[in-house]
Amino acid sequence: MSDAPGFYEHLTFNAPLSDARADALASRLAARSPSDVLDLGCGWGELLVRVVDRAPGAQGLGVDTDERHLDRGPRCRPRPR
């Protein structure tokens, strides 16, 4: 693994997961109307955000051992206007 700046910048996920599969998975999970969503090994939190965005009232918590991934997550999420 490299610590070089920008090493992961071209990726959406820190795993082999396409946008279409992530959307399908997030929709299936959100259909269960969760109030809380826990993502262990969340990486940048992209999948967690997709689930919480689709589940009204749900709160999410992402846990990862790599602090660099946790730091990147908020920078990847568009800010509400």
Number of helices: 3
* Amino-to-carboxy terminus distance: 36 Å
Mean pLDDT across all residues, rounded? 81
Could you estimate the helical fraction of the residues in percent?
25-40%
Global morphology? globular
Spatial strand order of the main sheet: 1-2
Largest sheet at a glance? 2 strands, parallel
Order of helices and strands: HEHEH
DSSP strand content = 5-15%
Give the radius of gyration. 13 Å
Per DSSP E runs of 2 or more residues, the count of β-strands stands at 2
Low-pLDDT stretches are none
Which structural class is indicated by helix and strand composition?
Answer: alpha+beta
Q: What is this structure, in a nutshell?
A:
The protein has 81 residues and is of the alpha+beta class.
